[in-house]
Batch of 2 targets.
Target 1
Amino acid sequence: MSVPPTPPHDRAAVLCGLAGWLPPRVVTNEELSRRLDTSDAWIRSRTGIGRRHLAEPGQATSDLAVEAGRRALGSAGVDDVDAVVVATTTPDRSCPATAPLVADRLGLTGVAAFDVGAVCTGFVYGLASAAGLIAAGVAERVLLIGADTYSTIVDPDDRSNAIIFGDGAGAVVLRAGHADEPGAVGHFDLGSDGAGEELIMVAAGGSRQRSGTGPVALRDHHFAMRGKEVYRHAVTRMTASARATLTLADHKVDDIDRIVPHQANLRILHSVADDLGLPTERLVSNVGSVGNTGAASIPLALADAAARRTIHAGERVLLTAFGGGLTWGSCLLTWPALARTDHPHHTGGTQEP
Ligand code: COA
């Protein structure tokens, strides 16, 4: 695509479409407890999770992304965009990226399409990337999809991780608009600390450790996480990033009507809200019914809240995320009046279990 002349300074990306999609198969804590040495009570008390949706064998991240992307385009009332960005840690393949395939399946062949890899911070990084394309005048409209199928990389016999993660996709459409209108995204705070690489990792399959055969190689292809340390980082990094964003925007904590953290674990979300001094009523959460869905978690939580009318036009919303890398990021926006928002599942909502 050709790059137009320098855009005006008040040009910004404005949220105008939102949707989510969850694979139909629901796996409850009871079902996991029949197979793993765990219990519904343990999972609920440590994570607040009651159930999650898992992809069927053969269902890939792009399949979920296409469903969410199609619904987000419908929510925005548009059928074309200039770019498709897919934030994911579970791309269909290590090469090529998943976004071009998603764009093609949505009838958007020819548009710019690329993946963003920032693990569970992927949606916020993707939002900054999409907003940058629009603010720079490179694109008028962008479809951003956060999609992950962690069930394809989590060892089903690993009780520490199998209880936490779910599969899903959430998507937003951003259009060019003005920085002071509802839905305009920004300010942003983004950060990373690669010294924490080993806390969240899939060891094999990349250039450091290529694919191999045998049981050890299989283990190295599984997702590994040092849960206790990750927990501490998730709380401190999201809290600090949220504060940094408020400072950039010259806002106080009390100015925030809704905080939407990456849905890692309910205890983490409560700690972030507490540390910021925000009452838990302002916390948006659907982790109880979907688990941690990686890059999909923030847009799925937003789509769920919008469909249930627990987030309202004019409210000031703070998004904050933390993930492998380590990475973290936050973003502010005033919630826009969206024309259409459906529950992120074709058979109904994602009520807390
Ligand atoms: N059921 C029952 N027991 C379990 C279990 C399960 N599903 N998973 C682990 N345990 C056991 C452990 O083996 C350990 O047993 P031990 O004391 O005999 O060794 C015990 O429970 C405590 O394990 P620990 O890891 O200390 O538990 P925890 O209270 O830290 O909870 C997590 C584990 C994973 C739930 C928690 O660390 C966590 O939520 N971390 C953050 C994960 C996250 O959100 N990651 C995404 C961020 S992007």
Note: The first strand starts at residue 11 and ends at 21.
Target 2
Amino acid sequence: MTTETNTQTAAKKPKILVARAIFPEALAKLEESFEVRSNQEDRIFSPEELQKELAGVVGALVAGSERIDASALAQAKDLKIVANISVGYNNFDVSAMTAAGVLATNTPDVLTDTTADFGFALLMATARRMTESEHWVRAGHWDKWSIVNNPLGMDLHHSTIGIIGMGRIGQGIAQRALGFGMQVIYHNRSRLLEADEKACGASYVSKEALLRTADHVVLVLPYTPESHHTIGAQEIALMKPSATLINLARGGIVDDLALAQALKEKKIFAAGLDVFEGEPEVNPELLKLSNVVLTPHIASATEKTRRAMVDLAIDNLCKALEGKRPPSLINAEVLKA
Ligand code: DGY
């Protein structure tokens, strides 16, 4: 092969966009086959910048920070696929992508156990006041230790966990709860098959019954216009004053301001939040409270899982650009058109 041919081959590499920083080895692998517009400095693009970055590329790897809608796609005439490095895809306007003939993919399964582990960790940290206790130690309050004056928490074992959103991650949390001898109730758009309910020992109840009965309410449902503010002041009012609320799903599923007010007035015991309305901003009212555990959307954040998510997103992108069906395709209608 001549240098000239090599140069020609290099010049013919299709262009792709990698909109957020990824692992260097993954980027190097992509550079073997593509001319890559990368963003290893990890600056979040404005909508105008994203529109420009998508112009002239055939594929893009993005995360929840990139909103892919008609406006983002306006100049993306060559675009065939946008691969999300995330299982949730509320950053996609799937109808607009389908109308533009752009395949949409996500990263299911590879993060289920890691996210369920984290859900349980956040629940334990919240119910047992772990972050508050750590601050107490760091602030030198240990000399005030007493039987009745420690940060006293709520038990998980033999309590009732209510899971709203019983997909793969919800079921993973239910299975972990069984190990703690918890009673598992759930609410979901559709009821699970009997065999799946049995596998995670879960009983289906209405949302209202769940909120009234559960000692710990865990949210793992997808964000859609219908699930916006699934938990607001009215729903919190149904919960036990001793209950905890965990949001592992998406910002916007909880009305954060109503929650802050309820926590301030001790209408529920505590909350654990990994996702926020308008993140990375956090409602300042939440920041003032000690009975809330705050984490920065890290439920899937182990190195092994984040690598698996990036690898799956790359596989989706490569398959689509080879004219094959990507493994986790969201809008199969595009292939039929
Ligand atoms: C997901 O994959 O949806 C997680 O929330 C990480 O973004």
Note: The chain has a mean pLDDT of 95.
